[in-house]
């Protein structure tokens, strides 16, 4: 009877590990997609195509929302009493998500900053051409 219970426990543990690994990979995929959109946004910013930059940032934020929801579901399971084992992969997924969120925040500020600089430059050039 003990052997049967041990086998059942091992199978349950394997299933839980597999589920956590799949969840971690899903978080990584969406966080990675967010970072790819951020890079596209920065490239659009370099080309001074502000609408494209903002659109890419919006897509990046959508990916972060999905990844964050997956992470939150896992953390809520643990908060409700279901012990989640430590997973290097899950830790890496959380780290990647946090990095993407930070990069997006900086990207948003950069887009606004460059857009303001461009608008101020246009206004300055307009005033100078009227004066000259």
Describe the structure.
The modification Phosphohistidine is found at residue 92. It holds the Pfam family PTS_IIA. Keywords: Phosphotransferase system, Sugar transport, Transferase, Transport. The chain has helices spanning 2-46, 50-79, 88-131. It has 132 residues and is mostly helical. It has one domain (2-131): Phosphotransferase system, lactose/cellobiose-type IIA subunit (Methane Monooxygenase Hydroxylase, Chain G, domain 1, Up-down Bundle). It is rod-shaped and about 95 Å long. It starts with a helix and ends with a helix. The mean pLDDT is 88.
Structure at a glance:
Helices cover 90% and strands 0% of the residues.
How does the overall form come out from the CA principal axes?
A: rod-shaped
What is the alpha-carbon Rg in Å?
Answer: 23 Å
Instruction: Tell me the CATH topology.
Output: Methane Monooxygenase Hydroxylase, Chain G, domain 1
The tally of domains stands at: 1
Distance between the termini: 96 Å
Q: Tally the helices.
A: 3
Percent strand: under 5%
Instruction: Identify the CATH architecture.
Output: Up-down Bundle
Oligomer: single chain
Q: Main beta sheet: strand number and arrangement? A: none
Low-pLDDT sequence parts? none
Q: Write down the overall mean pLDDT.
A: 88
């Amino acid at each position: 009877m003990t052997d049967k219970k041990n086998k059942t426990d091992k199978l349950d543990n394997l299933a839980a590990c597999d589920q956590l690994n799949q969840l971690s990979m899903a978080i990584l995929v969406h966080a990675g997609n967010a970072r790819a959109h951020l890079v596209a946004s920065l490239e659009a910013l370099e080309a001074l195509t502000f609408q494209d930059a903002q659109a890419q940032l919006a897509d990046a934020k959508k990916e972060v929302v999905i990844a964050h929801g997956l992470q939150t579901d896992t953390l809520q399971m643990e908060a409700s009493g279901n012990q989640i084992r430590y997973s290097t992969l899950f830790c890496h997924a959380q780290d990647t998500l946090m990095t993407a969120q930070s990069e997006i925040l900086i990207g948003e500020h950069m887009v606004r900053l460059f857009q303001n600089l461009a608008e101020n430059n246009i206004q300055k050039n307009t005033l100078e051409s009227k004066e000259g």
